[in-house]
Fold this sequence. Notes:
Layout: E1 2-7, E2 10-21, H1 24-36, H2 43-54, E3 66-72, E4 75-82, E5 88-90, H3 97-108, E6 115-119, H4 120-134, E7 136-149, E8 161-164, H5 170-184, H6 192-207, E9 211-216, E10 219-229, E11 233-240, H7 250-264, E12 269-275, H8 279-288, E13 291-303
Parallel strand pairs: 5-6, 11-12
Antiparallel strand pairs: 1-2, 2-3, 3-4, 4-5, 6-13, 7-12, 7-13, 8-9, 9-10, 10-11
Amino acid sequence: MKYSSEQDGEWRLYPVKTKFYTDLNVFYQHVISFLLNHEAENNLLLGILNTLKKDIATYSKENPPIFISVESEDMIELVSIRTPPYNQLISYTKDLKMIDRLVEELNRKKMKVPGVLGFKEGALRFAEKWCELHSLEFKLEVNERIYRLEQVNPETLGTNQVELATDEDETIILEMSKGFFFEALPEEAIEVTDLEASQQRMKKSLQDKMIFVLKVGGQIVSMVKQGHHTPNGQIISAVYTPPQKRRKGYATELVAKVSQKTLSKGKKYCFLFTDLSNPTSNKIYQTIGYRPVTDMDLYRFHERK
């Protein structure tokens, strides 16, 4: 496959190759520099790769991850991974034609793709192309924004007690995690298996000492998880305060304090994702010091009605 490109005022054709990898370490070393050029935009992809380096079976014991790069003239233009049974995840790319090439190659290999997650323009292009080829419909299920923080606003740090969650907190953490899960996803997108997998990952995060809680009067009122690592940053996720405890600043204080802990340990950035349908949370995170980077969309594919 060849695509045209304008360089120095002249148009010329250049070959585009799609490469599949089975060795995670080889793939990681090959694509890491490309991904770091847009570390914030690619933070989820980087985080998943780092998680897989610890345990390749994190997301499935039966189906191995699929690693892909799309390249032109030995230059990486796009990176994509899928951890079955989950969706195709695409990196940021300046050239949307590379999305077309990825779709063509996945189709040629007769691969099954339930949906796509990626930067706004790229995810939409993939969804349109894939569904056109397979006579499917696509639906936007999650519309998020990536934020990056480099410095915490000290006025948001508060004075309440923040602790690492312990095994003794498992019951309340799993209950809060379930609340977060049901609020984060539209009802029609929720599957029992997804909820079970989410609960298992939360248990693992608890064991790995990645969950922090804010306590008031000795009672847990809010939780947050330190998520995936990137070389220079860490994702802050699963921010949840039970409905009856909201509008008291608990989530703001907890996210601010855990973000500061992350920076104090040497990370340059903290990243988080917000649901764009929730203006309150988007405002809160900006008050702490988070700044918007780009939007991320999740499309799921369905049979035409």
